[in-house]
Amino acid sequence: MSDIATTAESTARSSLAAEVSRRRTFAIISHPDAGKTTLTEKLLLFGGAINLAGQVKAKGERRNTRSDWMKIERERGISVVTSVMTFEFEGLVFNLLDTPGHEDFSEDTYRTLTAVDSAVMVIDAAKGIEARTRKLFEVCRLRDIPIITFINKMDRESRDVFELLDEIEKTLALDTTPMTWPVGRGREFLGTYDVVNGGVRLLEGGGAKTGAAQQIEIAELAKLNANLDVSAVKDELELVTAASKPFELEAFREGHLTPVYFGSALRNFGVGDLLQGLGKFAPEPRAQESDQRKVEATDPRMSAFVFKIQANMDPNHRDRIAFARLCSGKLSRGMKAKLVRTGKSMPLSSPQFFFAQDRSVADEAYAGDVVGIPNHGTLRIGDTLTDGEDFNFVGVPSFAPEIVRRVRLTDAMKAKKLKEALQQMSEEGVVQVFRPRDGAPALVGVVGALQLDVLKARLDAEYSLPVEFEVSEFQLARWVSSDDRKKLDTFIAANTSSIADDVDGDPVYLARNEFYLGYTRERAEGIEFTNVKDVK
Ligand code: GDP
Prior knowledge:
Elements: H1 2-21, E1 23-30, H2 36-46, H3 61-64, H4 70-76, E2 84-89, E3 92-97, H5 106-113, E4 118-124, H6 131-142, E5 147-152, H7 161-172, E6 175-178, E7 180-183, E8 191-194, E9 200-202, H8 218-224, H9 230-243, H10 249-253, E10 257-262, H11 271-281, E11 288-289, E12 294-295, E13 303-311, E14 320-328, E15 330-332, E16 336-339, E17 344-347, E18 352-355, E19 358-361, E20 364-366, E21 370-375, E22 384-386, E23 397-399, E24 403-409, H12 415-427, E25 432-436, E26 443-446, H13 450-463, E27 467-471, E28 476-481, H14 485-494, E29 499-501, E30 507-511, H15 514-523, E31 528-530, E32 532-534
Parallel strand pairs: 1-3, 1-4, 4-5, 5-10, 6-10
Antiparallel strand pairs: 2-3, 7-8, 8-9, 11-12, 13-14, 13-22, 14-21, 15-20, 16-17, 16-22, 18-19, 23-32, 24-26, 24-27, 25-26, 25-29, 28-30, 28-31, 29-30
Helix pairs in contact: 8-9
The structure holds guanosine-5'-diphosphate.
């Protein structure tokens, strides 16, 4: 009997390991306009997840079915929603976590990066490394997330290619290994040379998708384009082959080296190479740190953490969706999970997969996958779900707000309702709410100004609460803590009028400006002021 049990167990283990090893969970980081949306569409086309390019940023009807506050997104032409797209390609399951492209909502973006194992960095060939790419790259580096580079828009005039690679190396302190190399530039761009296997893949005529590079002799390129200086191309390819650093998987996995692909997302060129590179080099679901132990992805016991909450994605489903990244084991529909924060059990009756933008009910998901869990406010950002064990994943951050405002209610009778609404909004991560200990009205803090517009629109639409925001005497908020409980209590007692509680009841010091903050900090011995908090 026990033999049978052991055999069944080991079969389950190996099928779990097989499922986990075919997952690739990644995000695309880029500066707005570099081509992230276009590339996303083309990647999804490869996986057959959508059959009509253009759906990712679809305008018209699909958009109109979204709820009211999404109007803000529409009007400003930016993407507020972090969506998850799953597709299969060559036997692998890719989970692409989309990050909002706008400067605002960076908090959401950062949290999304806690849920991926690798990232694709898209660079506009005419522009090189831009501000936002750099910022996002820094977040990836902090988390040791390996990066694959896609230099896009090669069909247009670009900057010198050697110079682009040099810029990556210097500004990001990241070695580069070109896996492909552009042949011809701008209007004369003919395709890419496969640096690893040799051969040229042509932009026009076959091979552009997944086919192997066509073995075209360099000399023959002249026949295709009379303007091409074939001997210069030859020299350049020799130089690239001789001078490039060889690709080293370990250096890549440790975040020291990036393989570089060239292409044109718009022309669907080079995207297949990129996807194959992702499949081959990008890591399988990684182990995740918790406050008890490191949790391996192949650990048979289910565990997950919530990194994003989305409300009202679809008016037909008036609920909240918590996006949870599975860290270990397998999640089956109907199973009960333990919400570690409360110790309560919750049934996962209809976890959802996200195939492009259609929600579909999933029967099972494995470590590395992201599932949407509908709930009515039970789940919060940073929550850990397990199959019964008691541990919390660490490392889902909350950032100190850059803008602090007081919420003014036009109808004072609705104060209680506002309190509830703000609580919900802060649990969803829309804004942070700080309740001053001296009983003054609540303050809201945001990282980007757009969050305030979203909050106002949602309070109005969902709670019939018209509000205004007022500049408060406080501009900055920092979490305060100390190893010495007494010291913290003394500090709090001496500064009550500047102390507030965040959504978890953790103390926050509110400062009028940087000067006050610096002044207080210098005098508060043994107190730590932080602008990032680990959400638990
Ligand atoms: P995002 O803001 O990063 O999502 O960028 P989009 O994908 O929306 O692209 C921004 C603009 O660049 C759009 O007008 C695209 O059509 C264009 N674009 C994207 N990829 C390419 C490309 O490979 N070549 C050219 N010529 N244009 C591109």
